[in-house]
């Protein structure tokens, strides 16, 4: 009797595992399909000048319109993309769509501000990345200066020749490089000094409790001071209210991004915003 029960339990367990493995396999294939057939989409979030008056650039953020699960945010499917080895391909899709949207804006007589795209370590470490970007620029008649690339500290932690070479080449092509979520990873000052980054984006977690949290004030101030010393500019991410804004402005933060100004929006809304701004 006990044996039978144990077997039933084991069976139940196996079914559970295989059900979730199946679901994962299905999701993975749906993601491959979405990347290949434009099942993904982009939303654009404006980045404002330090005085918050002018829209100076924007960040392209990926979404997945899943047929049964609805509009999925990066947190809901990027982990799968990373684990399944699909993230570099996804990043390339985003780059291409951004170029296409820059061209679309031009066709409507508008000029898209520089578009920042997020790049994973896999994409950056791909030795043919610069060739791929070069082809996109040519195909869509986009200048390198219309694109910016954001990378988190951990994506650039490997001190390899490929990385050095790629980053240099990208800068030569006119692209600007930013470090994203600054303060959450580990990168040394020396590393920053030796790589051609021109912007730091302070992670939202440091901005959230400004100016009440004394630690966050101290950390943000030290990042701003360090950036000044290195001659790079700073973007504060996740600015949601006037208190944060006033404090950041007082400290001379160069750029502001957050729901206080605009939420990420589809390209048509973004182009409308450009028309009215
Ligand atoms: P991120 O690059 O740091 O992008 C900023 C995130 O903060 C976005 O979330 C944006 O919607 C959110 N955000 C902006 N302002 C505010 C605010 O005031 N309050 C709050 N609560 N949130 C704000 P999202 O779109 O969910 O993206 C999350 C992360 O997913 C991104 O963080 C980025 O690391 C990653 N990601 C997005 N698109 C791509 C992509 O195409 N490729 C790669 N590799 N990663 C991507
Ligand atoms: Mg980013
Ligand atoms: Mg960030
Ligand atoms: Mg982030």
From TrEMBL:
The protein's name in its UniProt record: Diguanylate cyclase
Superkingdom per UniProt: Bacteria
Coiled-coil residue spans: none
Residue stretches making up the EAL domain: 24-277
Organism: Oceanisphaera marina
């Amino acid at each position: 009797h006990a044996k039978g029960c144990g077997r039933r339990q084991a069976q139940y367990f196996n079914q559970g595992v295989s059900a979730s493995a199946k679901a994962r396999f299905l999701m993975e294939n749906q993601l491959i399909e979405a990347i290949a057939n434009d099942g993904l989409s982009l939303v654009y979030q404006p980045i404002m000048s330090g005085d918050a008056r002018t829209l100076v650039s924007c960040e392209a953020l990926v979404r997945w319109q899943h047929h049964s699960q609805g509009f999925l945010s990066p947190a809901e499917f990027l982990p799968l993309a990373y684990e399944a080895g699909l993230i570099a391909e996804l990043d390339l899709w985003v780059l291409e769509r951004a170029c296409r949207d820059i061209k679309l804006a031009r066709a409507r007589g508008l000029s898209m501000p520089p578009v920042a795209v997020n790049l994973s370590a896999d994409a950056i470490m791909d030795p043919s990345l610069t060739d791929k970007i070069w082809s996109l620029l040519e195909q869509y008649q986009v200048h390198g200066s219309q694109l910016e690339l954001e990378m988190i500290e951990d994506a650039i932690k490997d001190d390899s020749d490929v990385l050095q070479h790629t980053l240099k080449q990208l800068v030569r092509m006119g692209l600007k490089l930013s470090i994203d979520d600054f303060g959450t990873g580990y990168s040394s000052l020396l590393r920053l000094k030796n790589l051609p980054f021109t912007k730091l984006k302070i992670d939202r977690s440091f901005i959230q409790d400004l100016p009440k949290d004394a630690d966050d004030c101290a950390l943000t101030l030290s990042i701003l001071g360090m950036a000044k010393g290195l001659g790079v500019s700073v973007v504060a991410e996740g600015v949601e209210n006037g208190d944060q804004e006033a404090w950041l402005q007082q400290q001379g933060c160069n750029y502001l991004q957050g729901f206080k100004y605009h939420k990420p929006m589809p390209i048509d809304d973004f182009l409308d915003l450009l028309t009215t701004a």
